[in-house]
Amino acid sequence: xxxxxxxxxxxxxxxxxxxxxxxxxxxxxxxxxxxxxxxxxxxxxxxxxxxxxxxxxxxxxxxxxxxxxxxxxxxxxxxxxxxxxxxxxxxxxxxxxxxxxxxxxxxxxxxxxxxxxxxxxxxxxxxxxxxxxxxxxxxxxxxxxxxxxxxxxxxxxxxxxxxxxxxxxxxxxxxxxxxxxxxxxxxxxxxxxxxxxxxxxxxxxxxxxxxxxxxxxxxxxxxxxxxxxxxxxxxxxxxxxxxxxxxxxxxxx
Amino acid sequence: xxxxxxxxxxxxxxxxxxxxxxxxxxxxxxxxxxxxxxxxxxxxxxxxxxxxxxxxxxxxxxxxxxxxxxxxxxxxxxxxxxxxxxxxxxxxxxxxxxxxxxxxxxxxxxxxxxxxxxxxxxxxxxxxxxxxxxxxxxxxxxxxxxxxxxxxxxxxxxxxxxxxxxxxxxxxxxxxxxxxxxxxxxxxxxxxxxxxxxxxxxxxxxxxxxxxxxxxxxxxxxxxxxxxxxxxxxxxxxxxxxxxxxxxxxxxxxxxxxxxxxxxxxxxxxxxxxxxxxxxxxxxxxxxxxxxxxxxxxxxxxxxxxxxxx
Lengths: 253, 310
Known about the structure:
The complex is a heterodimer. Chain A starts with a helix and ends in a 9-residue tail after the last helix. In chain A, the strands form two sheets. A five-stranded mixed beta sheet of chain A has the order 2-1-10-5-6. In chain A, strands 3, 4, 7, 8 and 9 form a five-stranded antiparallel beta sheet that branches. By secondary structure, chain A is α+β, with helices and mostly antiparallel strands. Chain A has helices spanning 2-31, 34-54, 82-89, 111-116, 143-150, 179-182, 241-244; strands at 96-101, 107-110, 120-127, 133-142, 158-166, 172-178, 188-193, 196-197, 207-209, 222-228. In chain A, 41% of the residues are buried. Chain B is α+β, with helices and mostly antiparallel strands. Chain B has a domain at 28-73 and 126-291: Transmembrane di-heme cytochromes, Chain C (Fumarate Reductase Cytochrome B subunit, Up-down Bundle), CATH 1.20.950. Chain B has helices spanning 31-56, 129-156, 159-164, 168-172, 174-182, 197-220, 230-235, 239-266, 269-277, and strands at 21-27, 60-61, 74-80, 86-92, 95-98, 104-108, 111-115, 280-286, 305-307. A four-stranded antiparallel beta sheet of chain B has the order 2-3-4-5. A three-stranded antiparallel beta sheet of chain B has the order 8-1-9. In chain B, strand 3 (74-80) and strand 4 (86-92) form a beta hairpin. Chain B starts with 20 loop residues before the first strand and ends with a strand. The interface between A and B is large, with 54 and 51 residues.
């Protein structure tokens, strides 16, 4: 008799404990060093699985009728650095995009230089990590064309994008892409949104478009592009401003 | 089923019962099923909490490919009255409800805070999208792998075809089953070992529609997967539709959970819990011990039957 009662009590306690650990424990675990690393391991798995399943598949392109009336701008919408203000005041005529790092031919490209390259227009969806989506028509040059001109060296593994916008903590916005996304035909350096010069809230004069990843990968206000073998020494070493705040480097999910 | 024997050893003295009743522990749930059940329960708990955390980053839902920001079909928002008091407002279509304390505005650290779902329901508690995503995607993998294992196991052992798919007779008895459920009349004895028709339908809907659907709709929200799952995204009307349906399936899981817990309680908490932890389920039969003919069980080889004299 006692045995059954004890067993019953044990089961009850075990269940209550499991429940408490499951709900209350998640907060405590989130604050540890190791638990987020364990949880983050799932992202590598997702990346590998999604890469294997989708390879170079193209993001869906939409029709003019699908374009959002307003392309919502998020994050920085009006960079305040003196350098950027000066460029903006002059209609970005003095803008140069520097391409450097592990390349055979470092570049310095004006907007006219970029526009003179074969360009591409695509109506694609923009998915914010918060959950909303907008659709816009983008015109720009494929990043792959610029990379071909610069000729990355053998050692280059990542493309790092450095931006004019300073974030709340004072650091500059930056992002990085692996080569599979960098060379993808829909990855653009875009200067036009919905047939008009790219507005400042959306990243003027030049921003990145990577339609198979979330919005935070698509750096705005591009200042320079660097080819690197590792991004460990940049920022906090996680490959991007939001990555340094705990977001996943792979943002295809 | 409310009374559970204090002792199940066959040595209990039978004190000349007026009607002999037989109590028997039957091995009902196999070990793999019990393990998968609990892994699934933990996954669903974490996925729900972290999912609500992710939802809170933009607490509004839309239909279509893109967000029509002025016209969400569901939103958990907030308004502030002149005296500075915050009110939670849940809007479904054009209907608005004051849901202060629950949705839109709820207390976090003792202060009324603007947030979709309250902090006690989200993982982690505070607004922390990056961490919510980390929890969600980790447990999504376990959920999907566990679900796949269950499906293969259920197929292999015929648990699916024998115990879950309703038979023709089940379908004919559906009206009666609905009435029985409404009156909280539950089968006893051997009949209790067999899943009834409503139970079967509920399990199938939860496993395939909610379980399979929630995973597919999750994948349909991934911009990378959309490059190969375009057909699926279009099938449901777009990525924002997929997000809405993902949410609705999650609500479906909550509805199932509440009904599931209710049924567990009314048919005997102790007995049900024991059967999903140890595998053994107690039934009472009158007269001769029958070998359980129920489809879903293998009667325990060493029948531990007792005449308990009730």
